[in-house]
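Hi everyone, sorry if this is the wrong subforum. Our group has a chain we'd like a structural model of before ordering constructs, and none of us has done structure prediction before. Sequence below.
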Amino acid sequence: MNIKKILVKILPIATLVACSSGSGSSGGNNNESEFNYPASQYTNASNTYFGTTVADPYQWMESTNSPETLAWVNQQNVFTDNYIHNLPEYNAVAAGLASLSKSAKSFEERLTHQNFVKVGDTYYYTNVRRINNITPEFNSEKNNTISVDNIIYVTDDKNHNGKVFLDLNKTNILKGAVSVQQFGIIDGAESYTVIKTQDVNLDLGTITVINNKTLQPVQRIPNIYGAFTIYESGFFYVQPAQVTDIYTSSYNSQNLYYYQINKRPVTIFEAGSAIGSIDLDSSLYNNLLYFYAGYANGNNQVYSFDPSSLNNSPQIFLAGEIPASFRIIDSTSDEKLLVETNQGAAQKRWVIVNPSEPNSSNWINVVPPNPESAIANYITSCGNYYYVEILVNGVSKFYRYDQTTPASNPIEIDGFSGLGALDSDGVGKPVCGDDKKTLTYVYSNLVTPDQKYTYNPDTQQQGTVQDEENIPGFNPDDYEMKEIFVPSTGGAQVSIFIGYKKGLQLNGNNPALIYVYGGFNVSTLPTFNRSAVLLMKNGGIYVVAQVRGGGEYGTAWYNAGRMLNKQNTYNDVAAVANYLIDNGYTNPEKLALSGASNGGLTTAATALQNPELFKVVFPAVGVLDLLRYQLFTVGFGWYPDYGYSTNLEQFNNLMTFSPLQNVQHIAYPTMLIQTGSEDGRVPPLHSYKFAATMQNVAIGGNPYLLRSYFGAGHNLLSQYYVDMWTLFFNETKTTVQP
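Answer:
Right subforum, don't worry. Here is the predicted structure as tokens:
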């Protein structure tokens, strides 16, 4: 198959240079477009990189909560709502998605479990569920579990329901979207409850210490990064050094502290500018505190600290070749540590580490090193076994390994029929039962809704379905999914998964949407997307593409789509689009592209380079200004994927695909740029500046719309899907039935 020409469009030098013309003027209606967009104030702001001055006329929008920015965003929202909500498809799409969301909510509520904290012979617990992260990039583990009712319970028996110990709904520490994410008990002469609350839109939270006798707060510590760790009469925590605006300030230069009740915090470790982040585990292992220091270059080191004396110095415990990655998963019965690492592995490797002999020569493999075609992706322990997800050609296989005989022959236990994906990082993440035997996990694929499995190694050879999501009007037997390998540049073979209704005719006239991510070594698996049911029910094709930059085929696949190789990601998406067109699945008037976060970048960059391939594109919560992303919130940690504009070679590379700097005076596909007004991970300033640029530089008869959802963060509200699919069906001229 001949891949169509992939156009790499770079702005002429003249358009990159800031100039005085237009200073103080409005972007207005100078783009030869039929749309009367809200005015965007154009300024002379610019930034100079290695002698090149790059105009940044909408840099004032980086103050996301200024009166000027908020007024502009409100005008944009009114404009977009007036456009989309008056389309004839709107009501049918809203009704169809409302029905789908009811079944999803019911199923996810049934996945609630308990998070226990044992103090003496007493158990304290919260009822928790995981947040279904649609954007699993850097820092996704920081806020993905929440209490469902914000109540702490107490019981003497884990098998019996407890009574209310502390109802936080009756305090003043919960406001807006804030919920309880972690709690601990300090049990001494006086008893205290330590609670970390966090807005699900943000990556920083607040610790509140409550006196269990008076039920009154005695201490509040804001801007907490990650977990805290209880130790004796206090706790360890991490806090960025300089946060003035929680929505835009950089969270780097973090420090590790120990706080004792009614005493000043003690500094244990200062990260400085070289180390971007510090991560704590929520518990000590063998009376030692372990923490992770993450460097901007992608390197990761594990430190150990003996808390018996706060004057002790942290010691490097695990380090490796850059980029090194380590994570302590659990401790073993003989006081060793189960560690996940990328050292000596195609992707991930799990080893037993003796704390007294942590050198890699002493590591013991839990899972044998896999061949390049089988990628280790996830591990959990339950009872006497480890359960491991291995990716084979981009789909999940779930295996059991015996803990007593490391690297033993595995037994496949998933029980799922056909190509499937384990939910290893969402609401259905595997959970070990209180009996320390029974494992619960969730499987799905593009045309099979979530199925909850249970597996007991004493009685079962494979997992069996205990519960499943039932969607009214959707029969999985009427649909099918297949995997195809698409050739791309450099000889790469890109795996794609296609879901559609049986009997589909390859007549080149089917509506289709490609979902992409392509970054951060994250594996984009063919999991069930309930909103895509609406597409498939109406004769459309849903496609998930595993492009370079992801982790589906190991570290080599990731390296081939990051930093100076980042263009490969966009080449792969274009190759997938061309394949679907050339082979009769769809045509450019029926094809859409969608992605969120890094996937929003992938979507925007690909569409700007290949406008002829798509009818409509949906970049959501995207990283769209690659010259300045590192200045805001957790952006400092994205260097391994993009590089920094402060390095000449990396700056030149970024200038070839950074969406904000590559909008030209030509026509592009219809675009709906979506973001959350309270997104603390990828601040909405990226979407604001990009939307203003599209509306005032690009031309043509297609609308370039912005929708910022007030109160939403990185995981957008349900209205996001209503707006997206309404515009999709309208632009592709597809009749929609709920």
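For your construct planning: Residues 262 and 649 are 51 Å apart (CA to CA). The first helix runs from residue 13 to 16.
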